[in-house]
Structure formats: structure tokens, C-alpha cells
Amino acid sequence: MTVATIRPQPKEWVAPQETQEDLDWAELTTVDIGKFDQPGGKQELANELKQAVEKDGFWAVVGHGISKEEFNHQYALGQHFFEDYTLEEKKAQEVQFEKGNYFGYKIKGNKKVFDTDVRDNVETLNIAKFTSDHKYDEYFKQPFIQEHREELEILSRKAFEVARKLLVLFAIILELPENYFADRHAYDLASDDHLRYMRYHPRSIEDDEQVERIWARGHTDFGSLTLLYNQVVAGLQIRLSDGSWKYVKPVDQGLICNIGDTLLFWSGGYFKLTIHRVIRPPNDQINAPRIGTFYFVRPGDVDISIAPSPLLKKLGLYEDIDPVSGTDYVRGRVKDYHDRKDYLKRENATFRLGAFEIKDGFD
């Protein structure tokens, strides 16, 4: 006889207080995507977004139609997964880094950091898309996903809709047909898009000093586009062109967005990548729950070679190169980055596939 698990409902999310420390904040462009469907709105937004992607590839989005309640529910669900499920339940579907597969759960502490005895302090759940043909159901083994599938699908699709609008704007910037990128990232196409819940666990100051206070080393994102739901606990930093690091400031009910590797390639380098990292939070937030919720947009088995953009041709950035599969690139990059015994610095390491090469470490 099977005994049903009696599980508490997700607790209300209470956001941590913002830091009172005087941090060096980056100046990010804020885009009000609510203007997207207004007359002339897409072109106006494309002009605004163009400044961000030419400058540093990081910006904030507001007016996206995701309510405050939905924001809080996202965080409540993440908190629920990390606090109310057993390790055995979490590990019902684990990531398969050896295959370049990011779907599932990653336990914290399974890798050493920077050639020390300090262990990584992050646990993660990556949830595949809820496509209409159920092609990813094999990855939904966790009780958490099974018990909250309907609401997780709503949240996943809402995040993707914001991403879809941004993909349209990228095409407009490059003077391509509006749906050039959106069609290549359609929700029901096979790809490694995922909704992510991530929790960083505090370390002792002694351990953090051994690893230069770094919780996630400098990196670029492997896919096309990343959406981060407003993160109140400071720690995310971006590296500017002069080599300095600046903090990303919370934006109330905002989405912090950034370009990933594959949009860099599609744009012939016109869209800028920003190296980013996570460091130890300020002292007044060190014990606050640093739970992050994300949506990662990743191309599937489509060609990510440079788009035939009139703008890129005018700028001399277009080059006719051999096709490269988005799936092959993303999975190869995941395997190269994560399928390792430990997280080392690797400052001079690169990853290459076909004509595309990306630097792998920046600390």
C-alpha cells in the first residue's frame, strides 16, 4: 500500500530587504515592453533596446504583464521546492552534464572551487518547456513538477512571451523580418529552454575568502537570451569594458535581461555579451535567502550562423560560414563547462564549435 505524501502548501514569499550598503551600481537601460503593441511601439522599443545591446548587452524590462502576485508566486514556488521536498525527491531527475543536458536538479557541494577544498554553494532545478506534444515529459519526474505542473506551465509560457517580444525587437534592430528570431525559438520547437529555480547557500567568511568571495565565476550565458526575475539580494555583477565590476541594482517587478552566446553569433558580434558573476552578498544580506528565478532561451536544431542582416552587411559584419546547430553548440558548451570534477579558474580557456569560439572563464 502506497502512503500519500502530506506536503505543506507553498508559503507566502517575503522578499528580503534591500541592502543599505553603498554599492557601485551599473547604469542599465530600462525598456517598457508594454508599448510593444502600440502604434509605432515596436520601432520605438527597438531604438531603445539597440542602445543596450550595442553597449553592454544587459538591460531591465518592465511593463511585461507579469503581475506582482505572479512574481511573488514564482519565488514562493522556488522556496517551496528547496525547503519542502526531500533530497531523494529532488534527485528524481538529475542534470546530465556528461550529455550536455541541463534539465533536472543539481545538488550543491559536488564540486570544489578554484583548486581549494571549498565546495560550490548552489543548488538548481531546471525545468524544460511544457510543449503541446509533451516531448519533455520524461524530464518531469520530480514530485514538485508533477504537483505544480499547471502553474509552472503558465509561468513558463508567460516568461517566454516576454522573450518572444524581445526576439522580435532584435530582428527589427538587424533589419530582418520581424519573426526571424522568434520563429527560430518558437515555444513548441525542440530546444533546451528552461525555467530555473536556483538557491545559493551562505558560506563562512573564511571559506569565501579562499575563493575570492566568488559564488559564481565570471561567465557568459550559453543560449540566446536570459530573463532574471527581480533579485533583491545583491551579488550579481557585470564587467564593464574597462574591466571594472559593477552591481546590478534590483528593479521592482522588473526582469533583468542579457544577451547570450548564440545571439552574439547570429549578430556577427554586433550584439554585445556582458560577462557577469555572483559574489558574496553585503553583510546586511548575507543570511537572506538568495533564491533566483530565471527563464533561459536557447536555440534548438537551427542554424546559428550569422544572420543575413542588411545592417550587418552594411557594417561589414556579415560572413557566409558553414552552418552550426544551436543544439550542438548549447549542449557542447554545457558539457565543456560543467562536466568537470571541479570548478577551476580557466581564465584563458575557450570553447569552439565550427567557426564560433567563446572565452570560457573570466575571473
How many structural units, i.e. domains? Answer: 1
CATH class: Mainly Beta
What is the number of strand segments?
A: 14
Q: In the CATH hierarchy, what is the architecture at level 2?
A: Sandwich
How would you characterize the largest beta sheet? 8 strands, mixed
SSE string: EHEHHEEHHHEHEEEEEHEEHHEE
Mean pLDDT: 95
CATH superfamily: B-lactam Antibiotic, Isopenicillin N Synthase, Chain
Tally of helical segments: 10
> First CA to last CA: what distance?
54 Å
**Main structural class:** alpha+beta
Q: Could you give the order of strands across the largest sheet?
A: 1-2-10-7-12-5-4-3
Share of residues in helices: 25-40%
Low-pLDDT residue spans: none
Please state the overall shape, judged from the principal axes of the Cα atoms. Answer: globular
Please tell me about this protein's structure:
With 363 residues, the chain is α+β, with helices and mostly antiparallel strands. It has a single domain (29-359), classed as B-lactam Antibiotic, Isopenicillin N Synthase, Chain (Jelly Rolls), CATH 2.60.120. The protein is 28% helix and 19% strand. The strands form 3 sheets. The protein has an 8-stranded mixed β-sheet with strand order 1-2-10-7-12-5-4-3. A 4-stranded antiparallel β-sheet has the order 6-11-8-9, with no helix packed on it. It is globular. It comes from Hyphopichia burtonii NRRL Y-1933.
